[in-house]
Amino acid sequence: MHMHKFEKIWLTFGIGCLVVFLTVVGVSAFYLGNKPASCLTTINPEKVDTTKPFDKPGLHKVEGKEWDYELVFVASAFSYNPAKVEVPLGAKVKVIATTKDVVHGFEMAGTNINMMLEPGYVSEYTTTFDKAGEFLVVCNEYCGTGHHLMFSKIEVVK
Ligand code: CUA
């Protein structure tokens, strides 16, 4: 097949650009083991029950930190521990969550809390609970047959 000289140059240029582009995207995305900001801490998913703070799920008052409470959640197919928890209105809370098995979601309906829980990683989100009421926590990652049964309740009380 006969190819025009310019055609060859442009073809080479095009492929070259593609290679450079993919390299830049690939290298920068995973450079230094980058992960989404909410998943920087790692954990052994088989030892969640004996690893702090997941050995004591629920709400805990803390001292000397930028937040007043830590709200610890352990997700597993197909539930959250705790299944229901009360939080005082106006409290600055660091939500700390992980999963014991597969990927689960952690979406607090009606708020901007929406995390992905990955086995081996700890997801965290600090927020102030300034709206009273009952909030449903739902799993928004398909995790198996009981996915739609997976929920918890956060009650923000005065
Ligand atoms: Cu857990 Cu879907």
From TrEMBL:
Under the heading SUPFAM superfamilies, the entry gives: Cupredoxins (SSF49503)
Q: Which InterPro entries match?
A: Ba3_CcO_II_C (IPR034214), CcO_II-like_C (IPR002429), Copper_CuA (IPR001505), Cupredoxin (IPR008972), NosZ/Cyto_c_oxidase_sub2 (IPR051403)
Task: Give the transmembrane ranges.
Answer: 9-32
Cytochrome oxidase subunit II copper A binding domain segment(s): 55-158
Q: Which reaction does it catalyse?
A: 4 Fe(II)-[cytochrome c] + O2 + 8 H(+)(in) = 4 Fe(III)-[cytochrome c] + 2 H2O + 4 H(+)(out)
Q: What is the lineage of its organism?
A: Bacteria, Bacillati, Bacillota, Bacilli, Bacillales
What is the protein's known function?
Subunits I and II form the functional core of the enzyme complex. Electrons originating in cytochrome c are transferred via heme a and Cu(A) to the binuclear center formed by heme a3 and Cu(B).
**Subcellular location(s) per record:** Cell envelope
**Organism encoding this protein:** Neobacillus citreus
Q: What is this protein called?
A: Cytochrome aa3 subunit 2
- Any idea which GO molecular function terms this record carries? copper ion binding; cytochrome-c oxidase activity
Q: Organism's domain of life?
A: Bacteria
Which GO CC terms are listed, alphabetically?
A: cell envelope; membrane
The cross-references to Pfam families, in alphabetical order and at most eight, read: COX2 (PF00116)
- The reply to whether Transmembrane helix figures as a keyword in the UniProt entry is yes
Supply the alphabetized keyword list.
Answer: Copper, Membrane, Metal-binding, Transmembrane, Transmembrane helix
